[in-house]
Amino acid sequence: MYKSRTTFLTLLIATSAFALACPSPRGPGGGGGGGDDDDVAGDDDDAADDDDFAADDDDFTADDDDAVADDDDAVGFDADGLTFQFALTAVEGVNGTVTITGEYIVSYWVDIMNGIRNCDQHMNFEAQYVHGFGVDTTPGCTNCSGHVTFNLGAFQDVSNPNLDPDHCLPADLDAVGANYAVRMTQPADPNATPANYGDFGDDLGIIDQETHDILGTDWTTADASTSDRTRAGSEAEWAQYSLDYTHTGFVNATPQSLAGSAGLNAITRPENPGSLFLAAWEMFINPANNTNTAAALEGEYGGSANFILTLGTGG
User: Fold this and answer.
1) What's the CA gap between 249 and 282, in Å, rounded?
2) Between these two residues, 38 and 150, which has the higher pLDDT value?
3) C-alpha–C-alpha distance, residues 281 and 229, integer Å
4) Span 149-176, average pLDDT
5) Which residue of 20, 50, 54, 58 shows the fewest CB atoms closer than 10 Å?
6) d(C-alpha 32, C-alpha 50), whole Å
7) Across the strands, what pairs with 281?
8) pLDDT digits (tens, 9 = 90+) for 226-277
9) How far apart, in Å, are the Cα atoms of 307 and each of 44, 179, 205?
10) Half-sphere exposure of 285 toward its Cβ, with a 13 Å CA cutoff?
11) In terms of Cα–Cα distance, which of 191, 180, 195, 169 is closest to 85?
12) What helix, strand, coil percent values describe the chain, rounded to 5?
């Protein structure tokens, strides 16, 4: 289920993960990773911290953390929600082709409401970018001013908890069908086990801020109870961290995609009435690293999804 990310913005911008200051999803306690949350001696909860004394919050069988069926014991992989970020660099070649390289990050949260993170999954990617307006550049997106086409064969999971304990172990994700970085970057296939969604690996339409201004568009829904995000509000929020909000990324929410099947349209608007392209990404630059103010992508950008994804049984 998709929810507006407003409540969690302070969690997403707690620290800088990249040189361009792409937000890193660490909870107030600094996050965790490697193993499960509470009882393994080698994981992130030893006797000096919050989770191994009998008198604390986590060792009684009647509490939240020791029963096999509960949320935080040493059995299996635990996550109740996901957040998504990326960092990319766009470079124009001698023939005018713009090549993108970047990193896509899916963060798995043990308790997303309280900022308790399990681990982060890192996926390298390559893509091509074309700057141009309308359906000739981005089929199906009338107002898009750019289009990103991903090289599906170049996605590579580089998560390595041996090098960084905040990284996920891919085998743990595969064991419970929770490998969302793979599921979101492979072509949508509802018949795969588990299903692939393609939300990040398929089309990504781009609308720059100048085009937004000309069109007077925003992504808030008519139902204010489901989303209170506005473009102006997001610009002000990113500015608090010395980041300039420059573009919005739109996913092609086909019926086979997660965006199309899980209700992203309840919290965000399409680029044009009736369009399948829904606003999903807030893109920004760190002016200290990228001084490009043009509509076309060039240099380093960060991206943060304007939603969180909560997981039920079966994910």
Assistant:
1) 6
2) 150
3) 12
4) 92
5) 54
6) 12
7) 249, 305
8) 455 677 778 888 999 999 999 999 998 888 888 888 778 877 888 888 888 9
9) 27, 19, 17
10) 20
11) 180
12) 15, 30, 55
Instruction: Rank 13-22, 170-179, 217-226, 244-253 by mean pLDDT and report only the highest.
Output: 244-253
Retrieve residue 249's tokens: 């990324």
Query: What is the end-to-end Cα distance of the chain in Å, rounded?
Result: 10
Total number of residues shown for the chain: 315
Tokens read off for 170: 């891919």
Name 22's Cβ contacts closer than 8 Å, sequence gap at least 6: 16, 85, 86, 87, 302, 303, 304
Whether the pLDDT of residue 72 is over 60: the answer is: no
Name 125's Cβ contacts closer than 8 Å, sequence gap at least 6.
100, 101, 102, 103, 104, 150, 151, 154, 155, 156, 185
Residues 6+ positions from 71 with CB-CB distance below 8 Å: 64, 65, 78, 80, 110, 111
Burial class (CB in 10 A: 0-12, 13-18, 19+), 265: middle
pLDDT of 20: 30
Give tens-digit pLDDT for 159-169: 999 999 999 99
Token digits of residue 129? 């970018």
Which of the 8 DSSP states describes residue 168? Answer: -
pLDDT band at 40 (very low <50, low <70, confident <90, very high): very low
For the chain, where are the alpha helices, taking DSSP H only? 9-12, 170-175, 180-185, 209-215, 231-239, 258-261
CA 288 to chain centre: 23
> Of 222, 223, 218, which Cα lies nearest the Cα of 233?
218
* Average model confidence (pLDDT) across the chain: 74
Q: What is the spatial distance between Cα 12 and Cα 72, in angstroms, rounded to a whole number?
A: 22
